[in-house]
Design goal:
alpha/beta; nine-stranded mixed sheet; 18 strands; globular; binds adenosine-5'-diphosphate; binds alpha-D-glucopyranose
Amino acid sequence: MKILFATSEIYPLIKTGGLADVSGALPKALAQLGIDVRVVTPRYASLKIDQEHPLQTIGNLSILGQPIEIAQTLLPGSNVPVYLVDHPVFSARQGNPYMGPDGNPWHDNPERFALFCRAVVSLATSALVDDWVPDVIHCNDWQTGLIPALLSESSTPKTLFTIHNLAYQGVYDRNTFERLGLPWSLWKENALEYWGNMSFLKGGIVFSDFITTVSPTYAEEFQTPEFGYGLDGLLSHKKDRVRGILNGIGDDWDPETDPFIQKNYSITQLDDKTVNKTELQSLLGLPVDADIPLVVHIGRLVEQKGIDLLIQAIKELDDRRVQFAILGSGEKRFENALQSINHKRPDQVAVRIGYDESLAHQLEAAGDAFIMPSRFEPCGLNQLYSLKYGAIPIVHRVGGLADTVKHIHPNSIDDHSATGIVIDHLDVNAIKWALDYFISIYNNREIFKDIQKQGMAEDHNWIVSAKAYSDIYTEIIQG
Ligand code: ADP
Ligand code: GLC
């Protein structure tokens, strides 16, 4: 089986969020199953290329008269080839893949990702490299949504479209559609047209052979108006070809081997986790005290993640014996609010604004709890990493959070199945309640340790999910 995995970010080459983690881990697991999988992504200027696998140019394409070079490297730690689509709209711009230095999306994002989609289609159908032609192109999120649309007239390759977040749709006006030179047959309601605009994401949903998302619960939720962002009707119409497959935990997230943390630890040496806690307290200027419960958070500072509610809850809990350590970047209003609490209460709330891979690992290793009060969450990775690192997740019962965290109550304590705190109805008071509940559990050390170990013992190997994807590839290849 030959699979071309198309993605707009991939760890460790470039990362802004969970899509990169998935793109860096799932292809490796597919390769372990014996699948011939190759990845394609844009050649951004800020890609971190592994010195052991320097770029090699392997061919040239011409897209709407524009020359494009295809370079190749390997996904570090594997034999999975990564093809890089090289054009100045990617390779001549430093920084974030989607945004300029002013924090706004690049003005020509539709042109950039339409070009990427056309290049992927051309790469997949031209046998450019070693006469290699994929059976399936596995597309991810709106940046790849035009791939199934551009292939709508062909019977091969087949396409699978994975939705990591329905809130980001790639919607642009009609002038953009005309500028992109797309066929007029795609300008209709059962194609790209979306309330007088065009939608990249809709292209992926309408024209792919199968749709997946990253948890079973989100696969149900996004077929309802509350979570469907206007596409619930279309998704429920296609429900026989929709499935939710949970993300796994990649090799980079393992407290036993993690190179970023102060002291490696495991379920049988859980006391060593404390070293990470006191080191972090000292690094962030918090009072160093192993006995104060430490709640951590890492994430994009946007409404999806419920950061506004968390900020309010922290403001109102100023008299509790608890510390917070928060790492994130995103909307200025949230960055400013967090920094202001940090200035007012430096002994209780530590904040780092920015993107810091190493600190993210250190927070997981140090935390007694990880709070993730997302309004919606297609899967969520940090709660999974937290389970593995013994930082008990405090989450809202939505999407992948509902599928992966088992609430602490007397029964689940007794039968040793509890792994975290799950909020049913999200608001500021519920977050305050959950934090108080966590503090009380923390102070009962035997129970707390048992819950930590329960989460650490769980198996979230990517192989399980890779098998589920492999079944879908087989299903769509066989028609
Ligand atoms: P999403 O993809 O919606 O942002 P996920 O929970 O799926 O949420 O994945 C987020 C990923 O990005 C995790 O690996 C997390 O550790 C990482 N991350 C988010 N913000 C930061 C940050 N400021 N610094 C370092 N890593 C971050
Ligand atoms: C998206 C979602 C997140 C998911 C990630 C990887 O960014 O917001 O819930 O874990 O994609 O699939």
